[in-house]
Amino acid sequence: MKRFMIVLVVLTLLSGCSSSFEQKDRPTIAVLQFGDFASLNDTYQGIEEIFEEQGVNVVYKNANADTSVLMMNAQSIQQEEVDAVIGITTQSAQTAINVFEHDNIPIIFSAVSNPEAIGITDAMDFVTGVTDTAPYLQQLQLIEKLTPDVKKVGIVNRIGDVNGIYQVEQIKAAATSTQLDIVNKGVNDVQELGVALPMLTQEVDAMFVITDDLNVSGTSLIVDHANKKSIPVYASEDGQLEEGILASVSINYVEIGRQTAKLALRALNEKNLKIETPEHKVTKINQKVATELGIKIPEEFSEFTF
């Protein structure tokens, strides 16, 4: 498979300098996206921004959260001549590896919380990517400072989803360094989520939204039930703040996408690239939600409000 070198184009001092592929050398990179969720769309937006800047040809497929369509999309891409494949989410990464592992092209994952759970390690020289592991301890510490009356934090996850299970385990581990208790409930689907939430929100003082597909698609439902009990909802990514989340020490999926795209360009010419964690994190607090809940934001966090 042909490997492509990034050509540095020197422009005049008036226009500055930028790097991009020459027209004749433009690589083609396929992107497999699992579903039409905000965080995944943001990830693709970041990927697309970098690829547009660099002149990369993109073959984009969205499975709309259907695993059978995801496999068909991957097999369809295999019929085309692509130089690398990006899989957004655990499902997409698994599918990309299953379909392309013998095609001698780089496979790059994005927004995967626990690569090792699906067999991805740094020892796989043709696979690399960017995780969406959030700063859970910092998030729990924010909960304690912003809402000191909170003692129990509720989390839901989809039963059998290794991504969500891993996140819950990481949060529970981080909670041992705080005074918070984590109350976890596993459910199979959105229907069970609707049944579980009234009981869970009765038991806890706050809710925390992780980034498995159940939480991403059910954020508004979680917020609605939390609002009925007048308890705050926190999240690990800022894309959910518009749905009534109080605050987040957040990873940003657009930035994760940009980081993924840059890693993919390196992977065209390099093997044994290390798996990366998110480079950008930011604290955000929703002033409107805080006001509605009667929460006074401490002066030390005023710069993070919007």
Structural description of this entry:
- The protein is of the alpha/beta class and 306 residues long.
- It contains 9 helices and 13 strands.
- The chain has helices spanning 38-54, 67-78, 90-100, 136-146, 162-175, 190-203, 213-228, 253-267, 287-293; strands spanning 8-9, 18-19, 28-33, 57-62, 84-88, 107-112, 127-131, 152-158, 181-187, 206-209, 233-235, 247-251, 281-285.
- The strands form 4 sheets. The protein has a 5-stranded parallel sheet with strand order 4-3-5-6-7, sandwiched between helices. The chain has a 4-stranded parallel sheet with strand order 9-8-10-11, sandwiched between helices.
- Helix 7 (213-228) links the parallel strand 10 and strand 11 (233-235).
- Helix 2 (67-78) runs parallel beside helix 3 and helix 6 crosses helix 7 (213-228).
- The radius of gyration is 21 Å and the shape is elongated.
- Mean pLDDT is 91; it is low at 1-18.
Which H/E pattern describes the elements? EEEHEHEHEEHEHEHEHEEHEH
Mean pLDDT: 91
> What gross morphology would you assign?
elongated
Helical percent range? Answer: 25-40%
The number of helical segments is: 9
Q: N- to C-terminal separation?
A: 48 Å
Number of strands: 13
Uncertain runs: 1-18
